[in-house]
Amino acid sequence: MQMAANRTEQPRVTTIGLARGIIDDVEALARTEVRLAKAETKANALKFARPFALFAVAGVLASGALLALLASAIAFLATVMGVGLAALLVAVVVAAAAGVIVLSASASLKRAKMMPVRTERSVARDIETLRGDA
C-alpha cells in the first residue's frame, strides 16, 4: 500500500507534457528575442535621432546664410552680365552642389547599420542549439 501511495505522489512525465514544456520554452525564447530586438532597434534609432536633429537645425541656419550669399552672387554677376543670366548660372551651380550632397548623404545612410546585430546573432545561436549543431 505504501508503494502505491508513492507512485501517485510522483508526477508522471508524459510525452505530451514534455512537448508542451518544449513549446512553452521556445515561445518564451521567441518572446525574449523579440524584446531584445525591440530594445536594440530603439537604442540604434536613438543614436541617429540627435545627429539628424542637429543636421536639421544646421540646415535651417545655413539656408538663411545661403540665400544671402546667393543674392550677393547674383548681384555681383549682374554687373558683368544680365540679371537673368546671372540668376540662371547661380541656380545651376547650386543645383549641382545639392546633387553631390544628396549622393554623399545617401551613401552614408546605406553604410549605417540599423539592424539589431546582437539579436540576429542570438537568434542564429538559438536556431543552432535547437537543431543540435552546438
The residue fraction in helices comes out at over 70%
Low-confidence stretches: none
Distance between the termini: 47 Å
Biggest sheet architecture: none
Strand runs, count: 0
What integer is the average pLDDT?
82
Order of helices and strands: HHHH
Rg, please?
32 Å
Count up the domains.
Answer: 1
Structural class: mainly alpha
Describe the structure.
This protein is mostly helical and 134 residues long. The chain has one domain (2-129). It contains four helices and no strands. The protein has helices spanning 2-9, 15-77, 83-111, 117-131. Helix 2 (15-77) runs antiparallel to helix 3 and helix 2 (15-77) packs antiparallel against helix 4. The two termini are 47 Å apart. The model has no long low-confidence stretch (mean pLDDT 82).
Key phrases:
single chain, 134 residues, mainly alpha
What's the gist of this structure?
The protein has 134 residues and is mainly α. It has helices spanning 2-9, 15-77, 83-111, 117-131.
Mind sketching the topology for me?
Blueprint lengths: L1 H8 L5 H63 L5 H29 L5 H15 L3
